[in-house]
Design brief:
The complex is a heterodimer of chains A (334) and B (748). Chain A is α+β, with helices and mostly antiparallel strands. Chain A contains 13 helices and 12 strands. In chain A, strands 4-5-8-6-7 form a 5-stranded antiparallel beta sheet. Chain A has a 4-stranded antiparallel beta sheet with strand order 9-10-11-12. A 3-stranded parallel beta sheet of chain A has the order 1-3-2, with helices on one face. The longest helix of chain A has 19 residues, at 314-332. Chain B is of the alpha+beta class and 748 residues long. Chain B is built from 18 helices and 31 strands. In chain B, the strands form 8 sheets. Chain B has a 7-stranded mixed beta sheet, sandwiched between helices. In chain B, strands 7-15-14-13-8 form a 5-stranded mixed beta sheet, with helices on both faces. In chain B, a hairpin with a 4-residue loop joins strand 27 and strand 28. The radius of gyration of chain B is 27 Å and the shape is globular. Classes of the chains: A alpha+beta (334), B alpha+beta (748). Chains A and B meet through helix 13 of A and helix 3 of B.
């Protein structure tokens, strides 16, 4: 029986220090922080993760949502997804984040899952989660079961010949469009990383998913102040009507002045190996007339670098339709 | 409706049959006190976790249990060489003992499907057993498995039905359809996992099993364990659904029983969700070529339905896709065949509506294609081919109201507003697609025995060795007994799910209700007779002839008395100093007709019509089933509440069959059923459930039994998938002939 130690540090510094001796903070870490546990416990049951120590964050003071002096928002690492989705500041100023959160998982899971846990949500790739299958992310050098195998759900952006697994989170897509910043404490030291630099592409080392190092503890996430007059929206496409990971999703934040897009931020989900910020789409949109043609051109630009696997070519067109429609709906929102 | 119980009673008709009472086991279930199989725990109980093979074809080279055996809490790791002997179920053609996977576990070192058990670890806790199972080291001589999805006949297909000259008639037909339809492997995913809790007392087994057939489980397990049937008792009080997957024993049942015997301790084995996709059956992949020939008026002149389904290497599981084809429509020339293709997959088994459900996807899709080609309304096309004679048997139907299902369903749905052009209908910015299909399912009975005890304390107990698989059998049986005795159903204790009870039917094929009725009515009659005899021995009826005594509304009274002036039966028993009387009823089934062992005298089937609306949003490729009207001709409905629940559940399952469900065998990764979890094997959620309108025609089929009741577990699923596929065609112009219908099919 695989046993592990369960510790409950009394403060942030001791929590971060307790994890510092791990060899890695990435796949296979021997010391893991546990927040909601909705990913980690699953993976431990599947033997995909076998940490010898769990550091419980649930009693640390990381559960607050606060408005910052500059008008931005500070979201504690342990804020539950359901609480965040229904927080009045989020509903009023960042509806795209609320919509993304509520489109993910189930009510029960959202009640448990946390902000930092969701940031570090692992891929749902079937080969990653099955220890009898090859997977370069789980076991570097063992191969990728999905590339020649069943890859309908897999990524079309940011893939490598070693890994095509998607980042499954909805929340991360919204945070990417919102240009969130992730705040990290390591021992006494603190640093902050823009979300778009937080995730790394699989490349030749798919076991590495983020910039986190041993002892790094995510304490909170900040959002910049909302752009006055913006409209934001999250659209998620999937096979069934609820409780399924995205085939394609889009988070958009736009501002229209005189029928022109004076501000546009675009991120895609379900299609990338990381939450996919599309500066290509944003460039098309910037200053352009608000029209379906513009939206479609942005979608074409966003998917220009897409690379299909044997079964997921349809996701390229689906993602284009998703982004086009999300932009169209955003212009129609009050 | 039962009339007199015998020549001397005049049973008052109470509205018990047809009363929508809530299920009697509901409070137990919502309070968590209904004990399902895995809820049974015993002192000293051990936990078993099987070790599944990680290849689909090959042989075991080495199996090393040494590390596992040394782990904490581990009591044994059993494998082929140390588990002891299992026997095969003797071959039989009469359905007397049924099993789909004939090879007992660990019989040889050959691996024929992914997940085949090669060992089982037994430990004091589940976690210890799991860790030990993970620590068993197995190496294989691996071969390339065959898990193809394009089937090629391996043998000459079996002819299921034939009449006239279908080839000549097809060749000369004015209008022809010739298409091939595919339904994928589907995995039963009841919430309750398969489980066995085995208790060996040194002589006999008590097996708590998640089974839809306690009696068959007893006989099969006794045969395979090599002990007499009287030394095996099987208990299944509640089932967290089965959908056919729990009809017959699977290999894990034997692993648990043998472990209990070997270690002299109770053993619990619960199959994991992943293993549910491997070694406990599934609906097989089917590939069906349908050729229809018709006149310009749409009259069928030739029907050819040639099906293949996959099976495992060792078993000839025949899905029987042409089950419905020979009798659904008139057609003078018809041929239906089926062939089995052996692949490196686990053994398939019955899934809700086996044969007919995938078969109707093909036949009814082809009918829709014919309607489009002929520019005839699809409802009208079915009406033109309706028949009152089962032409495959040349026999009349006992009760066939397909025509009324079609017309009543169409009216309720608003079908006359349909415009046939593709994409021509819309609502709220969505494109609407309207489609329909006809449906049919068998209506048969199995042998049944039941006992009713009337007790001096006023209680009534009815017992039968059948089981309630979540469908409402407890409730329905209380109603039948209540009807027969004129007693309120809530006063009746129903005891099911134990092989020690009188032999009852397996819960499959929609046969339980129809099978129970005659046995239970006879048991009631016999119990009543005993009360009448008892009455003649004591005041106030002493000396009366039983011919002069009547039992109604739970009372004994003289023929010339009103029931209200009679004596409650419990008082009769008390006065006579009798604690309890018992009546037994037995009835013989007609399922042997279906097996071809006996010659049917009538053709008995249920019928239905499914009307479906889908919404289609091409700008985001979003397809949803928004509305279903289902008109069902399934005899007299005993309880419209549990009945509607059955049909609604079937419709939701049909949405999953049409749009989501698909077990994928990964030919690039050792033949594993790769999407073996509930995130990657997509089933309908509540949000996918459409608005459902269930119409029961409620015509009693009194040839089947005195109440005219049929089972309704399967008819609700029949026809749903082809109706959805035709609605999708109507909305999108894309004819999808391979399920499930996926986004990529529609935006290609």
């Amino acid at each position: 029986m695989h046993t592990f130690e369960f510790t409950r540090p009394s403060d942030l510094t001791s929590a971060a220090t307790a994890a510092a001796s791990a060899n890695t903070a990435q796949q296979g870490a021997e010391i893991r922080f546990i927040a909601g546990g909705t990913t980690l416990i699953d993976l431990m049951k599947l033997n995909v993760e076998q940490p010898h120590t769990l550091i419980d964050l649930n009693r640390l003071p990381l559960g607050a949502v606060e408005t910052l002096p500059d008008g931005g928002l500070k979201i504690g690492a342990m804020v539950r997804n359901s609480d965040l989705a229904h927080h009045s500041s989020v509903l009023n100023d960042y509806p795209v984040l609320s919509q993304a959160l509520l489109s993910g998982a189930s009510a029960q899971l959202r009640n448990k899952a946390t902000t930092s846990g969701n940031l570090l949500q692992r891929t749902r790739c079937m080969y990653f989660r099955d220890t009898t299958m090859p997977c370069n992310k789980r076991e570097p050098g063992s191969g990728c079961g999905a590339i020649n195998g069943v890859n309908r759900m897999m990524a079309i952006l940011g893939t490598s010949e070693h890994c095509i697994a998607t980042n499954p989170s909805d929340m991360n897509v919204a945070l990417t469009a919102l240009e969130a910043t992730i705040h990290i404490q390591n021992g006494q030291a603190v640093r902050s990383v823009p979300i778009n630099e937080f995730y790394v592409l699989p490349g030749e080392r798919p076991q590495r998913e983020t910039v986190l190092e041993p002892g790094d503890l995510i304490t909170h996430v900040t959002l910049p102040p909302p752009v006055a007059g913006n409209k934001s929206l999250y659209l998620k496409l999937r096979d069934r009507a609820s409780y399924e990971f995205a085939l394609a999703s889009a988070a958009v934040i736009i501002k229209i002045e005189n029928n022109r897009l004076s501000y546009a931020r675009v991120a895609l989900g379900g299609v990338g190996t990381k939450p996919w910020r599309s500066k290509e789409a944003e460039q098309v949109l910037a200053g352009a007339t608000s029209s379906e043609n513009t939206f479609r051109a942005a979608a074409e630009a966003a998917l220009q670098g897409a690379r299909a696997q044997s079964q997921n070519g349809f996701k390229i067109e689906l993602a284009k339709r998703c982004l086009t429609h999300a932009l169209k709906l955003a212009t129609q929102t009050a | 409706m039962p009339t007199a119980q015998n020549g001397t009673t005049e049973n008052k008709v109470l509205p018990v049959i047809g009363r929508p009472i809530p299920r009697v086991d509901g409070p137990l279930k919502v309070s968590g006190t209904a004990a399902y199989t895995s809820d049974h725990n015993f002192p000293g109980m051990l936990y078993a976790v099987p070790v599944p093979s990680t290849i689909a074809k090959g042989t075991i080279a080495t199996l090393d249990t040494s590390a596992a055996e040394k782990m904490p809490g581990v009591r044994a790791v059993f494998h082929r060489e140390n588990i002891g002997r299992f026997f095969r179920v003797p071959p039989n053609a009469d359905f007397s003992i049924v099993i789909d996977e004939h090879r007992p576990p660990l019989e040889d070192d050959i691996i024929r499907y992914y997940g085949q058990y090669v060992a089982v670890a037994i430990a004091e806790s589940l976690e210890q057993a799991q860790a030990a199972a993970d620590a068993v080291r197995v190496t294989y001589h691996e071969e390339t498995p065959d898990v193809r999805t394009k089937l090629v006949a391996q043998d000459e297909p079996k002819v299921d039905s034939q009449r006239g000259d279908p080839v000549a008639a097809f060749n000369s037909a004015v209008v022809k359809i010739d298409q091939t339809y595919v339904t994928p492997a589907e995995t039963h995913n009841p919430i309750e996992l398969h489980a066995t809790v085995a208790v060996w007392d040194g002589t006999a087994f008590t097996l708590y099993e998640s089974t839809q057939a306690v009696k068959n489980q007893q006989l099969a397990m006794s045969a395979m364990l090599g002990v007499p049937p009287e030394n095996v008792r099987v208990i299944s009080r509640f089932l967290g659904s089965g959908f056919g997957g729990k009809l017959w024993p699977w290999t894990h049942c034997l692993l648990a029983a043998a472990a209990s015997r070997n270690l002299n301790r109770p053993v619990k084995l619960v199959v994991s969700r992943k293993m549910m996709f491997q070694a406990v059956g599934h609906r097989p992949l089917t590939q069906q070529r349908v050729r229809l020939g018709a006149t310009t008026n749409g009259e069928l002149v030739s029907t050819q339905h040639d099906s293949l389904n996959h099976s495992s290497i060792l078993d000839d599981y025949d899905e029987g896709c042409s089950e419905a084809t020979p009798h659904l429509y008139q057609c003078p020339n018809l041929r239906a065949t089926n062939g089995v293709v052996h692949l490196n997959v686990g053994t398939p088994t019955s899934m809700r509506g086996p044969g007919a459900v995938p078969g109707l996807f093909a036949l009814e899709s082809a009918m829709d294609e014919l309607a489009v080609k002929l520019k005839i309304d699809p409802v009208e096309l079915r009406l033109r081919n309706d028949t009152q004679i089962d032409e495959s048997l040349n026999l009349p139907f006992t009760s066939r109201h397909l025509k009324e299902c079609l017309t009543v369903g169409a009216e309720k749905f608003g079908w006359h507003q349909r415009t046939p052009a593709v994409g021509s209908m819309g609502k709220d910015g969505l494109i609407l697609g309207w489609g329909m299909a006809a449906a049919t399912w068998i209506a048969n009975r199995l042998d049944c025995e039941a006992t009713i005890d009337l007790k001096a304390d006023g209680s009534v107990r009815v017992a039968c060795g059948t089981q309630d698989i979540g469908t409402g059998t407890y409730t329905m049986l209380a109603q039948i007994v209540g009807e027969a005795l004129g007693i309120d159903p809530d006063k009746i204790e129903v005891v099911l799910g134990d092989s020690a009870l009188p032999t009852g039917p397996l819960s499959g094929g929609s046969m339980v209700t129809a099978s129970l009725v005659p046995a239970v009515l006879e048991a009631a009659k016999n119990a009543i007779q005993k009360v009448q005899f008892a009455a003649t021995t004591a005041s106030p009826f002493s000396g009366q002839s039983t011919d002069n005594l009547v039992f109604s509304n739970g009372r004994i009274h003289r023929k010339d008395q009103a029931p209200a002036n009679g004596v409650p039966y419990e008082q009769v028993l008390q006065t006579a100093n009798i604690n309890s009387v018992s009546g037994t009823g037995r009835s013989q089934g007609d399922f042997t007709d279906l097996l071809g062992l006996t010659k049917p005298k009538l053709s008995s089937h249920s019928f239905g019509a499914q009307f479906v609306e889908v919404t289609w949003q091409p700008e985001i490729a979003r397809l949803r089933v928004s509305r279903v009207v289902t008109a069902i001709d399934a005899g007299r409905i005993i309880n419209p509440r549990t009945g509607r629940n059955q049909i609604e559940g079937a419709v939701v399952m049909g949405v999953g069959m049409a749009l989501f469900e698909h077990t994928i065998y990964d030919d690039q990764n050792r033949g594993a059923p790769i999407n073996s979890n509930l995130a990657d094997y997509v089933v309908s959620t509540n949000a996918d459930a459409p608005e459902i309108d269930v119409i029961f025609l409620d015509y009693p089929d009194t040839h089947l039994n005195a109440l005219g009741a049929r089972g309704i577990g399967e008819i609700g699923l029949a026809g749903v998938a082809p109706a959805i596929a035709s609605a999708v065609y109507h909305a999108t112009g894309v004819r999808v002939r391979e399920l499930p219908i996926r986004i990529e099919d529609l935006i290609a």
